[in-house]
Amino acid sequence: MPTSDNYTARVPVASGFITDRQHVMQRYNVANMSDSLKQISNLDELFELATFIRNNEFWRAQIQQIIVEPNGELTLVPTVGDHHILLGHTDKMEQKFKKLLLFYHKGLNKTGWDQYSHINLKYKDQVICTKKNS
């Protein structure tokens, strides 16, 4: 992509264990692949998450980095606050972001944005926070 002297795009940085093992798939006969080999790349999840963030004004301003963990799960680094958001995978992503927004409004506004080191959204109907060591 060419750079622009007039515009700086605000996009999250993706880092970590990003895999696209297309070259591995070429060794196999695609017709005989099992369903378990469909998860050979995490680029689809990254693209889905980046698209979701880009399409929401608040999350576009709030999420500055996406980290792909060694186990393939996704961690988000926000612009505001000194915590990491453990998203897990992109299943039920919209619900996870809704409960995070609710937690931001009802929880962090009362306790402070720098009280927790991790906010875990991986579990249904729960937001699990890890307090910072003081």
Please write out the topology.
Blueprint: E1 13-16, H1 22-25, H2 43-54, H3 57-62, E2 63-68, E3 74-78, E4 84-88, H4 93-111, E5 116-120, E6 128-131
Parallel strand pairs: 1-2, 4-5
Antiparallel strand pairs: 2-3, 3-4, 5-6
What can you see in these coordinates?
- Strand 4, helix 4 (about 95-110) and strand 5 form a beta-alpha-beta unit.
- The chain is built from four helices and six strands.
- The mean pLDDT is about 85.
- It has about 130 residues and is α/β, with parallel strands linked by helices.
- The longest helix has 19 residues, at about 95-110.
- It has helices at about 20-25, 45-55, 55-60, 95-110, and strands at about 15, 65-70, 75-80, 85-90, 115-120, 130.
- About 30% of the residues lie in helices and about 20% in strands.
- The chain has a six-stranded mixed beta sheet.
- The protein has a single domain, classed as Rossmann fold, CATH 3.40.50.
